Amino acid sequence: MKTAIVYATKYGSTKKAAEIIAEKLSNCTLIDIHALPESFDEYDCVILGSYVHMGVLQRDIRAFALGQIRLLLQKKLAIFVCCAFPENAETYFNNNIPPQLLKHASACEALGGEIDRSRLKGMDRMVARMVLKADHAKGILRTFSLHDDKIEAFVDKLTDGAATV
Ligand SMILES: Cc1cc2nc3c(=O)[nH]c(=O)nc-3n(C[C@H](O)[C@H](O)[C@H](O)COP(=O)(O)O)c2cc1C
36: exposed, middle or buried (C-beta count within 10 Å: 0-12, 13-18, 19+)? Predict the structure, then answer.
């Protein structure tokens, strides 16, 4: 099975998650959403991966999902997001991905995420502070990271638990 992981990253953690997934699958190509190939004919499986900002998946990933519904319904499909609050995953998926694709996907998972506040640019710094403050106000203090167990579960769902590389 040949797999394409189409991902959008801003600060690198979604790309990192895509690389970890690619390592676990055989015959997998990483595709930046900004460098799409002309055709997906050679791929049997497409994985979409995006970060979440203010509850919204990256714009071009949303546009790709919406514009390529017919193509994606013909492929094995899985979708992941990188985000600070994986407990909101269902809302993020439902609000950003067409329902036909969610129904068709073998796996939809939030894999956790990373935030390095010192690297945030411009408005992102302010927005992130606001988003994280809401969490802090609920008395929750947490560190943000990618969740190995969720990545493992995501890959397992996609491969039906069959041996990968
Ligand atoms: C400006 C900004 C807004 C964010 N908004 C959300 C959000 O609404 N929900 C959430 O769960 N995580 C949110 N996050 C966390 C990111 O989704 C997380 O850091 C993700 O791993 C970033 O992926 P990237 O490194 O590929 O850009 C936000 C982060 C930033 C910087």
Answer: middle
CA of 98 to the centre of ligand 1 (A): 21
Q: Is 63 among the domain residues?
A: yes
- The predicted-structure confidence for 126-148, as pLDDT tens digits, reads as follows 888 888 877 666 665 566 889 99
Q: The domain containing residue 28 runs over which residues?
A: 3-115+145-159
CB of 126 sitting under 6 A from ligand 1: no
pLDDT at 132: 80
The finding on whether 115 has its CB within 6 A of some atom of ligand 1 is: yes
| Residue 84 in contact with ligand 1 by CB distance below 6 A | yes
Domain-embedded: residue 74: yes
CATH of the domain at 90: 3.40.50.360
The pTM of the full predicted model, rounded to 2 decimals, is 0.94
Residue 111 Cβ < 6 Å to ligand 1: no
Report the distance separating Cα 68 and Cα 58, nearest Å. Answer: 16
Number of domains in the chain: 1
* 50 Cβ inside 6 Å of ligand 1: no
